[in-house]
Amino acid sequence: MKLSGRKFRKIKDWIKFGLAIACVVVFIVFFIFNVWSPIRKPVSVVVPRGASVTGMTNYLYKNHIIKSKDLFYFSIRLNGGKIQAGEYDIPRGSGIWTVASMLAKGKIATTTITIPEGLTVIQIKNMLMNTQYLTGEVDCDKDLPVCDLHDGDIFPDTYRIARGTRRLDVLELARKKMIEIKESFAGAKYPEPLKTWEEVLVLASIVQKETPQKREMPIVASVYLNRLNINMRLQADPTVVYALTDSEGDMHGAPLLSGHLKIDSPYNTYVNNGLPPHPIANVGRDAIRGVLKPAHTKYLFFVADGRGGHKFSKDYAEHQKHHESWRRIKKEKNSSLR
Fold it and tell me: pLDDT tens, 290-311?
């Protein structure tokens, strides 16, 4: 049966009308779920552990973050029916669907924590206590590795974490990273006279404290290895500082005096032969590499050059010349500050 032209046009008109209605409905749904928002400026929302969907729905509605409880609850159902704990940064103008999707998928706010190389455990804990967006304490009394940290246990790095992360969890993350670093160096040949990974870390911690320059680390490591191989004391100032400050590693601007070099401590390498008993700081990958692949030198001494680096010497006479040059540079610097 053929349709007359009139009837055909009528059907086309109805189809167009139906499509127009469908477009309007889609627009309304899109507007309600994605545009209709009471959020006039970015807002932070914390979902506590164990919070219910109903409880969070009431909270969001009461604080003018959503405009409809029913639509929000419906959106959560379509996103899996659950919400995840954490802190969320909700952008300005976010609709119900955006908010529900963020909470259901755990799109939590993050932050980065940078643990600098060369800090001690005490310094790192102090830093974390003064860092925003973290929670909890840095010490604990449980039988857990993170409750008994020592220098050398933590890997300095930049860590991306969720806001509200516990400080102990940050320390645990850095502790596990150091285990990974150790495993990445498995099979490496230790330079004489080092025999163990612990000895590598001890020397790396001294190198780390002596120079921040990556290119110098293998040379500084060679100086100390050369001394160890002839049973010469390391005489490393950072080990004295570590002993003087009760493992904090920071003199807080006070000068290191000649009398300090006589302190009775197993960490004082001016009065004891060999390496200190444990690392004096937490070390980065470059310091470890510097020890494992030291430069081939005959250097036994080094002193600051006044430009952020060091001058190296094979004998004491040459070292004395470099040291005198450094004294003049320091004197000039101090005079300019007056």
Answer: 999 999 999 999 998 888 899 9
Do 312 and 238 lie in one domain? The reply is yes
Pairing of strands 301-304, 310-313: antiparallel
191 lies in a domain?
A: no
Contact 152, 121 (CB under 8 A): no
Q: Assess contact for 298 and 226: CB atoms under 8 A.
A: yes
Same domain (yes/no): 126, 208: no
192 within some domain: no
DSSP state of 34: I
What is d(CA 260, CA 245) in angstroms, rounded to the nearest whole number? 11
pLDDT tens sequence across 125-140: 999 999 998 999 999 9
C-alpha–C-alpha distance, residues 279 and 239, integer Å: 9
Half-sphere exposure of 333 (CA within 13 A, CB side): 9
Let me know: does 84 contact 96? Beta carbons within 8 Å. no
Structure tokens at 262: 């006589």
What is the residue range of 294's domain?
197-337
Sole residue written with tokens 């001016």: 270
- Global pTM value: 0.81
Domains held by the chain: number: 3
Q: Which helix (H) or strand (E) holds 44?
A: strand 43-47
Q: Are 237 and 267 in contact (CB under 8 A)?
A: no
Domain presence at residue 253: yes
166 and 155 within one domain: yes
